[in-house]
Amino acid sequence: MPTRAGFVRISAACAFIALALAPSFASAQGATPPPPEPAPAAREPAAEPAAPVDPAVQRAEELFLDGRKELEQSHFDVACQRFTESMSAHPSIAAQLNLGLCHENAGRFATAQRAYRHAQDMALRANDAERAAAASEAATALVPRVGRVALSFARRPGRVELWIDGKRVDAIELAQPVAIDPGDRVIEVRAAGYRAWSTHAIGVNGTSAAVAVPELTATKGEVDPRDLTDGGDAAPGELSAAAKGAPHSDWRPGMRTAGFVALGVGGAGIVVGAVFGGLALSAKGDMKDKCAADGDGNDQLCSSDVGQRARQMAESRAGASTLAFALGGSVAALGGLALIMARPAAPAAPATAITIAPTLGGAMISGTF
């Protein structure tokens, strides 16, 4: 609840906003200007039909006026809801500025500052320099009163999203400590390909505290190294020093598959070699029956055609057996090496982090369990 002096200042600002912004709805409705002085009767033109009123604009103005009444009665939560509904029905600089004023009265300085910044952007797009300056001044005045939290990452994903109490924070705010409203706030970090990490932080107006974010856990085997930075030093989307030169995706699953295929092919080659080895032994026994031994006991003197064919069969099968054994053994060895290289890294133990940060008004405790 603001002090009496603060409420007088706020009321004065509220009156200024109401007077400065009231015409915005009328112009949005397309209201006709005041009629001109009547001309002489002889030349009086025919009356033109009134321009139709947009129901959405009319509804937005009704909600805006309801919000103003609630704000004057210090019903801040109801007033903020009315201004939000007015923005949903038909966005206007008036409703957005009053939404910021409402949150400021309620002590939600971080939300109020964001609302003022949004109003400033709307005014700039509408070429309304006066209201843009008023919104900028209101946002700047809240800088020393806003509570903030600074995130530090053990290993920051480049494409990270920050959510506070279920609402996404604009990426541009992540370059500095992020403004938070007072009270127990849920801080959640999300990134594509990783499990979301969340913690609780106690926000205190006018103070700043730190929250340590542990390394996020990947939800799948393949993680683009461009999504990782070391300690948040690299800009989002940039490769960190550790990720530079790394492949685009994890090669282990493909290597593991190739290893199993190579083992199968190599094993089949060894089986073929064994089969041909048996056939070669059988052909050699047949050759002994058909060929006479020489004086030294060699069975290579085959004078008949049948004996010659038996000898050639034994030699060809023996050669095929040797070749199959050699190729099968080599491919199987490569497959085994591939499986060894493709072994997954040991999973990291789940992190338990607790951060206790001193603040101007006390301390803030956060962490994961």
How does this model look, in words?
The protein has helices at 4-21, 23-29, 55-72, 76-89, 93-105, 109-125, 129-141, 252-290, 305-341, and strands spanning 147-153, 155-157, 160-164, 167-168, 178-180, 183-191, 197-203, 208-213, 228-230, 353-359, 362-368. With 369 residues, it is α+β, with helices and mostly antiparallel strands. It folds into 3 domains: 4-28 and 54-145, Alpha Horseshoe (Serine Threonine Protein Phosphatase 5, Tetratricopeptide repeat), CATH 1.25.40; 147-248 and 349-368, no CATH class; 252-341. The strands form 4 sheets. A 4-stranded antiparallel β-sheet has the order 4-3-6-7, with no helix packed on it. A hairpin with a 2-residue loop joins strand 10 and strand 11. Helix 4 runs antiparallel to helix 5. It is rod-shaped and about 125 Å long. The two termini are 35 Å apart. Mean pLDDT is 73; it is low at 1-12, 26-36, 38-42, 230-249 and 347-366.
Q: Keyphrases for this structure?
A:
single chain; 369 residues; alpha+beta; Serine Threonine Protein Phosphatase 5, Tetratricopeptide repeat; 3 domains; four-stranded antiparallel sheet; three-stranded mixed sheet; 9 helices; 11 strands; disordered N terminus
Quick structural overview:
The chain is α+β, with helices and mostly antiparallel strands and 369 residues long. It has nine helices and eleven strands.
Mind summarizing the main beta sheet?
4 strands, antiparallel
**SS strand fraction:** 15-25%
Q: What Rg is obtained from the alpha carbons, in whole angstroms?
A: 40 Å
Mean pLDDT: 73
Strand order of the largest sheet: 4-3-6-7
Low-confidence residue ranges? 1-12, 26-36, 38-42, 230-249, 347-366
Domains, number: 3
Order of helices and strands: HHHHHHHEEEEEEEEEHHEE
Specify the number of helices: 9
Beginning-to-end CA distance, first to last residue: 35 Å
User: Structural class, please?
Assistant: alpha+beta
The proportion of residues forming helix, as a percent range, comes to 40-55%
Overall body shape: rod-shaped
Number of strands: 11
